[in-house]
User: Fold these one by one.
Assistant:
Number 1:
Amino acid sequence: MHSETQPDNFAPIDRIPQELFNVILRSTIRRPGLRSSFSCLVERPNLEPPPGFHSWLPLRLVSRRWNATITSEKHLWSTIIARGPHAREWLILCFFLSVPRHQFPQPESSRSLNEFLISTTFPALTALVLVSDPSDQWEPGDVSPVTFEQHNTPSLTTISVNSPWQVPRPAAFARLKRVSLDSGLKVLPMHVLGLLRAAPQLEEFRLGCGYYQGFDPDSTACGLWYADVGLPVPVTMAHLRLLEFTEVIHRQSDTVWVLSRLLLPRAQVIRLDCTGPNAPHIFYYLPRTLANSVPGLPSRTGLRVVAADHSFGIEVWNADGTRRFIVRCDVGDRHLPSDSALSYLEVFVDRVRCPDVGLSALELDGTAGSLFTQRAEWAALLRCFPKLTRLSIANTSENRVDGRLAELTRALRERGEPLEELVFVGEPPLDLEMWKKKMKAAGVGSVTRVASTDGGSDDRW
């Protein structure tokens, strides 16, 4: 239902008794299949709601009474989503139309949205998703930030924001379980540390915004975040399961600064994505105390090296695959020589430190495997893994292993330690029987070929 003209009190649809419309509305809200009771409160008309959500904007445009009824049922709102280049304006307009005009006479005011939110309680609101268009950024001081306090949103557990005007005040973080801060925000490392300290219940944290490059952040950020005074180190995140950082590396890594000051006893997935001219230096920046921050690191048993035209990454995981630590860097247009890949790998293995059980499984994807063509390169790689028992090498049409196996065989023979299993992953033709004989002579227990591997996390790359 949608009205192309200005809603008015004389529209036939508006003659439905208010009590009957309330019954219809609540029945629709609680219909099975709609996610989180009341779903998409605010949505631009030309944007499809996320899967499982229902767009309520057309219903709100039927008449003023319908709009007022929908927006007045605040005890049923569980999710607020506003997206697009004018997300803030849509929020102001929809909220403004739901309250008497004398309370907030200027909907275009930078304070009107804030004033509405801090004077209203949303008892059922669990998720707040605000996504501005990249071009919809505001200069410091132009727009007041969204202000949610604990008493306004007692059930709020999830926020995803990408612009300074959207960031709630500190008190709202105390009960949050999932936080995503995306592009458009600029923060200091100490702010991130302070935010994490203020959110002891946090289970998932994704930081995709940029770090402020300078001595002081802009005035907007100063009002939103935290000072570095009185922060205990380390900051223990007892419930955090997923931690993701995306960073443009200039001279040093601000993410590593934060990570070295955290204690993550229950972390299951930690992922660092780095771009910029010095992105590969992330491996050198990793602290030697990394195992102190992530106590589960010494129990990792498998490692994967992944490379592509413009990226290089390393991942480690434990025996059952439930805990992973991933570092990925964008190397730009530069060619990644084998000695650089080996250097990154040696440093990473040193930082991870797995003395308990040792890294026993190594996986090389097609491009990563193609970096090693000489016996000396294979030998240097094998030295990084003294407890290696299983080696998997991808065999793809673009990166056939045939031409490199002779050098690998020599390196394995010189290694002097038996290798229990060698696995070729992929479908391209390979004279498996011939290589079984040669590898057996080099101390390899079994040689097999499979279509794919189930270790690590292919979907993450």
Note: The CA atoms of residues 339 and 377 lie 8 Å apart.
Number 2:
Amino acid sequence: MPKPSTPAWEPTAAWLQANGIDPSDVPLDSTPSEGVDSEGRPIIRYTVLLRRDGRRYLADDGLEAATEEREAPLITPRTAAPGPWAAGHQLTIRTQLESRVGPLYEATGDRWAEHRDTGRILVSCNCGFATGWTLAAAIPSLAELRREHEGNLI
């Protein structure tokens, strides 16, 4: 019978299953871990709920489920857990445009917006760096910006 699961347990359950271990036999509050055996081979160390005649049973103290520590060969390594949230470096480069209402097209009576580049750009980064609207020639090169603010470029 499958045991109840929690969102936090699901990645561990998938990892155990990928390594041939039935996650429904591993207590939810246990912490399976990777290690190496005495011969240096990668293994998983985990706790298993014991069964007698196909049923789980209580330990001799009558208070806890009967368990046993086991080892199994590590076939599929655990994927790295997500790291902490961080803003990190993320450069954003914007080009300044000027706009105006264009001339009247007599045939249709429409006016279209016209745009032109001012030659100014704004560079900002999540770390707090910002240039303000500056002439493009005065901004460090893209290579230099990437060195100082390694990360994504938008």
Note: The chain has two domains: 10-73, 90-153.
Number 3:
Amino acid sequence: MSGLDNDQNSLAGTPPSSPSSHSAPLPPGLPHGSDLGPRQQQSSEPGVGPDFAGTQDSDAAGTDDAEAVPTTSQKRRAPDSESDGDMSQYTGQVSRHFKLKRTDADELTALGKRSIRKILLYNTGQGMKTRERLDAIQPANAVWEIPKRLWSEIEYYTYAVLCSPVLPTYVSGSYPVGVVLKIVSANPGWGYTPEVKNDKQKQEIVAERVRTRLTDRRSAIKTAILLSIGPEKLTELDAMHLTKPKNAKTQPTPPVKLNILQLAAEVSGLHRSAPAKLTLELCARIAYLRRRLEKMLQDKPKNTDQYWKIVDKKLVELRKGSAVEVSRMIQRGLREDQDMYGTVDANEYEEAASGDNDIVNIAAAGKSLPSSAMFLAS
């Protein structure tokens, strides 16, 4: 019996392994008897928990007292409980700290009343939506660039198409844009592959480049025609102010009167690496364009921004006549231009190359267009 008493006294007199943990205060707001944390919950043996610290009485350390320790405080809350206490004060602090908008602050407050599992699902869904939006946005340094070969072909064909003597429209219906895109589509080896064509972002990058270069080409052609009218005629039409460049820093080019062959050479020289052939048909079309600009200047416009739309409108009216009537009208326009700006020997024109005059068919077949002569009508 004495041996048992000695064992009980030895057990009761053994100090706890972490004495400092029993003297630490409870977290703020945690009532006495609530969850005490895992360290306190492990001390369920007699004489080890804080209720027995410092007890030397062997009777106090008996089995009956150990069995009387309440166990309700060791229960955990249900993992999917709808609330983890009143978090409204803390959510208010977070909202003020991050300066959230009222709607966001209200959303945060509502989340504070939800279970951990519901908040996790909400955050996961929000993360998925954020990833979706990020996938739709590419940083500026990652924007797809047009391949060098495709870039070069766009440079040429935006010029060649506008030099076509049979081009039906210059701006209306985005016809020239469609022609150039059809040409590059028929030649995927240049870089406008099916993968690029089916990618909306890449397709728009190519289309925008085509539109921009066509606008630049039209502007250059119009300027060349305007300057070719000459200072005397421009002064007579009170249009000298239109020869000044829009950019004040750009050096103005003085107007010089040119005959139709000289003007066609100016237009042809806009693409130095592959200029258009100076055919009779090309000269006739440029003479028509110069005549239309003269007519426009007679109305004393403030600018020539509507020039190409007027040209398209007149071309539609011109095509309403028979082929014979159209041919006679073009020939008459060419003669009138020579009367105004100087004659040209017929031998100075290059012979027109024969070929299909349907630009769309040429583009669809992917045929090479070394010069605008490939567009000529028979």
Note: Residues 1-68, 78-83, 351-378 have pLDDT under 50 and may be disordered.
Number 4:
Amino acid sequence: MKKPLQMLDEEVEEVLSVNENDEIDMFETEDDFDYEIECVDFLHSAKFISSSARASGALTIVNNKNSKRVVLSKRVLTMLGQPRAIKFAINEKLKTLILMFADNEDGFTYVLKAMKGKEPSIVYCTDFVNQLTQIWDLDFENRSSVTLGVIEQRTYQGETYVVITQ
């Protein structure tokens, strides 16, 4: 029995033509494309994407010879309740970063630093940057920073956590 996705792929291939490079092409000629545009109100049928739907990343990792730091996004900070300090854990097997609000300072707490006039959002920690660079296999050969991460908020035993994956 064929899987639904396989059946859909076969139907699409039947409808679409294949060009000389064996690539699927929706329109055989440019005239066909122009005709399709004229037959429908092109913009009316298009779905616009809200600018708020853009992903900005969970964090920015700066890794250069002058500085190693992690800057948390406003969204992450909001999910954690605007903390002044955080704790983090790295699950190397799942390649995830787990952040949580820290209300007491112990050997696992990192106090967030702020740039002038901004909310605290920066962790200055070489080991933290090196660990993230390693588990996410980041390359800083031709750049000094990268913004990335998919954010998921979770609650466990009454504590709110933010889970970040690459």
Note: Residues 54-165 form one domain.
